[in-house]
Amino acid sequence: MPELPEVETIKLGLHRTILNQKITKIDILLPKMFSGDPTVVTNATISDIKRRGKMLIIDVTKDSYLYHLLIHLKMTGQLIFESQTKPGFGGGHPVPPLNTPLPNKSTKIIMEFESEDKLYFNDLRTFGYIKLVPARQLHENTFLQQIGIEPLTPEFTLETFAKLLEKRPKANIKAFLLDQTHIAGLGNIYTDESVFRAGILPWRIVSSLSEQEILLLHGSIKDVLQAGIELQGASQTSYIGVDGKKGTFLAQAAVYGRANLPCLNCGQPIQKTKWAGRGTHYCSNCQK
DNA sequence: TGCCCCCTGCAG
DNA sequence: CTGCAGGGGGCA
Question: CB within 7 A of strand C: which residues qualify?
Answer without folding.
Answer: A 1-3, 6, 53-55, 72, 74-76, 125, 127, 142-143, 146, 178, 180, 187-189, 233-239, 274, 277-279
